[in-house]
Structure formats: C-alpha cells, structure tokens
Amino acid sequence: MSEFALAAANLLGPRGWTQDSELVDPWLTDWRGRYTGRAIGLASPASTAEVAALVRLCAEHGVPIVPQGGNSGMCGGATPDASGTAILLSLRRMAAIRRFDAAAREITCDAGVVLQTLHDTVEAEGLRFPLTLGGKGSATIGGLISTNAGGTQVLRHGVMRAQVLGIEAVLADGTVFDALTPLKKDNRGFDLKQLLIGSEGTLGIVTAATLQLQPALAGRSVLWAGLSSITDARALLLHAQKVAGDALEGFEVIPQSSLTAVLDHVPGTRAPLAGEHPWHALIELAGDAASAEALPALAENLLASAFEEGLIEDATIAASEAQAEQFWLLRDSISAAERAHGPAMQHDISVPVARMADFIAATAPKLEARFPGTRAIAFGHLGDGNVHFHAIAPAGAVRGEWEEREGKAISRFVHDEVTAWGGSISAEHGIGQMKRAELARVGDPVHLAMLRAVKRALDPQGLLNPGKLVDTDG
After folding, report:
1. pTM for this structure?
2. How many angstroms separate the Cα of 158 from the Cα of each of 151, 300, 352, 423?
C-alpha cells in the first residue's frame, strides 16, 4: 500500500491526496453515525482526467474505491468498510459549471456541484432545478444521480433520473463514458446513462451531468387539509389531480400523532387548523409566470369542491409565503421530532400508488398487533406511492438495544409486507450497505441475477464501492 500511496500522491498532488487522519477521519463515518470504516487515504481529484488516472492506478494495485459526494446518504452507501484496504474518492473539488444554456433550459456541471449552489445558479437566470430535499446544502449532483434521489417535487417532475439529459462517468478500467450531449431521440441500443443512475457508484463514478431545467416559479399556493382517514387522503389526491392538473407540485400526508410530536418538539410552531384530525394533507400548487396569477382561485376551487364531496373536514390556505414555509416546516420536522422522542425503525418504502393508502391502513395495525407497545406511523409522498413507514419504540426502550433486538425483526416484517404488496424496500434512499442483506433476502431472484451480471461485466475486479447495493457472490 505504501507504493500505491506514493503513486497516488505523485498523481494528485498535496491537494488531491492525503493520509492525514485529521482530514480523512471526518469522512469515514456517515452523517447519521451508523457506519464507520477505515481507508488508506482520501483522494480529491480536480478533473475527470485525474479521476480516470486514479481509477487505472487502483485497478493496477487492486485497491477498492468508495466514491463520496456530500456524505449525506441515508444507507451508508458512501462509507468504507473496516478493512482499511479502500480509498475514499471525494468529488467535492470538481464543482465547475461547464455549460449553461438558459434558452435550452439545460446545464452541464461537475459531479461535485452542491444542490443548493445549482439552485442559486439557475435561479439567477429565471430558471429552477426541480428537485429539492433536506440535505440540499451538502448533497452533490453526483451523489443525487448515484442514488437516484427523490424529494418533495417528484409528483410533478419525477425522480433524479427524469432530470438527467446526459452523463459522464469513469468506468472500472479507467475509461471515460461520455454521454453528456442531450439527445431527444437516440436509438443506439441500451440507455447506458440510465444504467449508471441509481447504481450507487458500483458500476462507474459519475463525474459530470447535463440536467434539465424548468422555468422559475412565479407563485405558489400552499394548502393544509384535515382528513378523517388515509383513504380520504387518497381520494383527495385524485380530486386534486383532476382539479389542479399540472399545477399540483406536492401532496404530503401527515398523521395527527406526527403533527403533535412536531408541535411539542419545535418551538414556535402552531397547528394550521383549530381542531385535531386523524390525518392531514399538505398540498402545494405552483405556477410559472404564465400560470401563477390563477393559483389563488384554483386553490379556493380545489378546497371548495373537496368540501362539497365530503373529502375534507377542515382546511386552510397559507396567507403568506412565511406561513407557507411554516406549513412545510411542520412536515420537514417530523423525523427530528421523532428522534427526540426515542428509538424508531425507519423504512423508506413504496408500493403501487393506487394501493398505498390501503397498505397503510392494513399494515400499521398489523405491525402494532405483532409487536405490542410499538406504534406505526406513515408520512410523506402519497402521490408517489412512497411513504416513510416508521415503527416507534415502546416507552422506556433503550436506544441501541431496542433497534438491535426487536427493531431488526420489525424491519424484516415491514419488508416482507412491502414485498407481498408488490412494492420496494427502497423508494428514494438507495440500498447502500444498510439494506443489502434485505435486498438479497426479499428481492426477486431474476432481478438480483441481472444486477449481479451487470456488476460483474462492468467491474470484474469488484473494486467500485464494494459491499454496497448487491452481493456479487449471491
């Protein structure tokens, strides 16, 4: 390894290679603190050419590579194992905007560009990148592509793969796959860029991308509705889609227990409605310059017609942008309020959109009966068929012990139920190392065999992000 480290230092220089523990150690633990590994060193190349040369060097010496963007993933997908045989490959120095065509609504940027920076850059030209999430201040474009990230705007615009027009990646042998040019039509065989999106760095290292942009929002209306059941939430979603059409930007569901937890945990927050309701829906309508003026009337019409059809018990429309942000703060603070309450097992799952409400209604009481004292809650993107299905530990449960003992059994139960409903155990957070064993346990054998075959073909030495996503020995 000393020979390799010397060669890496010569290749990348002092800014691009370090073995200084003070600089390396902060990146060896995922941000949730669940996984910690070891590494030979931290590589921070400044260009695609340097990435390619480094990958060739690693292939020559048999050194595994763990790519890392903002280190904000949820499943330990950017953390090395404990062997200390791998290097961490940070793309954070690669943060250039290579091309920005405002007229075509396209931007080409390095993988290390931070999502918030991208938002600010395109906003200055009257455009927006229609994907956002809580970690936008640290998440990088490369990481978002590698995990096929979602967020709160998927209902209208789709997940990350829907925003990617072109991609550049370094493959396991150090060759560069250059498909950055955006083509509306291209029938030259497999869509290889889509193969790399969501592969979590196991097939190639994303170094740049061309992204689709949208006109900037000129206005929005944010609504909050109280509902009697999750099935009413599904009916309200269908009604909103019918009434609002393309203006429907987001549709989130929140149970009363989660809202109460947020109100207790976050100082200064207030309930949007006067009374309590079993379920709540947070709805956002959005429009560009051509459609924003019609949003207030559209929002009022949506609620009035929903009242007439008996879909909602009470509702309100945010009277200002500040109040709209307060509504979203309630939604975005659920996980933090939950963590303050005690241990929980968190599941990022999806089932067919039309079945999600029924899944929640059937599975939550089933889980609570199977594990007495545990509370099941579901919240999130109902319109995408993706909710965060969490199991809250009984009072007095010891953090760490409960997750290892009963928590793992709960997760197996949830994943079995999701699979039986034709769903996915990972809707938007990826597999990483956290869910790899569960994917192998409940995954369709044909699906897993195809994943393994592709992995072996593109990374025969198994050096790209080993131990993540899929076990090639299965």
Report:
1. 0.92
2. 9, 26, 15, 18
